[in-house]
């Protein structure tokens, strides 16, 4: 549960708003991980975050608005440092490794993102939230492959669309499967292994 015990007396109005929104998103993520998306109500999120029952409605308007904010915040910067990398093979490999490492780092918002992603296949409203997010990830992957083809670091026989589909499917499958493993895997080791497998696949 988000620690809301620190006094906000000296914070500006903007800082108080940002702090409240952060607490609400963490509270929502904790509920999703513990009980599933159906358990989330604006009132419960407000209480879990240490605020009033009505504050989540004030900040996000609706449950859909809250989930949309959570999904966007979770995916933004999901793999740190990519913004500083030039498009191409090495950036793509860094994305692959960083994405898998992130799945195992214990961050509740990342875990909630994965839970919501899995539930989206049976929930039209959740599916709509992820349509844009999925398209952005696919575009990111494809852009790196095309850049690698252009600079010669990716084998010329590689089909960008085919590989984008295969890589996206693998990342999604890993995201959904890792939390279900009865014996926890070393996500860092797995990330390095998958990275090198893709390096060989894309360059040979």
TrEMBL record:
Coiled-coil stretches: none
UniProt DNA-binding residue ranges: 41-60
Source organism superkingdom: Bacteria
Pfam family, one: TetR_C_6
InterPro entries on file: BetI_C (IPR039538), Homeodomain-like_sf (IPR009057), HTH-type_TetR-like_transc_reg (IPR050109), HTH_TetR (IPR001647), Tet_transcr_reg_TetR-rel_C_sf (IPR036271)
SUPFAM superfamilies referenced in this protein's UniProt entry, alphabetically: Homeodomain-like, Tetracyclin repressor-like, C-terminal domain
Keywords, ordered alphabetically: DNA-binding, Repressor, Transcription, Transcription regulation
HTH tetR-type domain residues: 18-78
Name of protein: TetR/AcrR family transcriptional regulator
Native source organism of the sequence: Streptomyces phaeochromogenes
């Amino acid at each position: 549960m988000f620690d809301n015990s620190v006094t906000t007396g000296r914070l500006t109005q903007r800082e108080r708003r940002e702090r409240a929104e952060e607490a609400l998103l963490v509270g929502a993520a904790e509920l999703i991980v513990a009980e599933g998306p159906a358990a989330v109500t604006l009132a419960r999120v407000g209480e879990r975050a240490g605020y009033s029952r009505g504050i989540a409605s004030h900040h996000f308007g609706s449950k859909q608005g809250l989930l949309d904010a959570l999904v966007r915040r979770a995916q933004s910067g999901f793999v740190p440092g990519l913004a500083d990398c030039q498009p191409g093979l090495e950036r793509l490999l860094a994305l692959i490794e960083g994405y898998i490492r992130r799945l195992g780092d214990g961050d509740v918002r990342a875990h909630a993102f994965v839970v919501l992603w899995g539930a989206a296949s049976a929930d039209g409203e959740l599916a709509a939230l992820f349509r844009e997010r999925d398209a952005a990830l696919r575009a990111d992957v494809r852009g790196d492959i095309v850049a690698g083809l252009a600079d010669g670091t990716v084998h010329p026989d590689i089909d960008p669309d085919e590989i984008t589909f295969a890589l996206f499917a693998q990342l999604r499958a890993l995201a959904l499967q890792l939390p279900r493993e009865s014996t926890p895997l070393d996500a860092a080791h797995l990330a390095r292994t998958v990275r090198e497998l893709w390096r060989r696949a894309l360059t040979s």
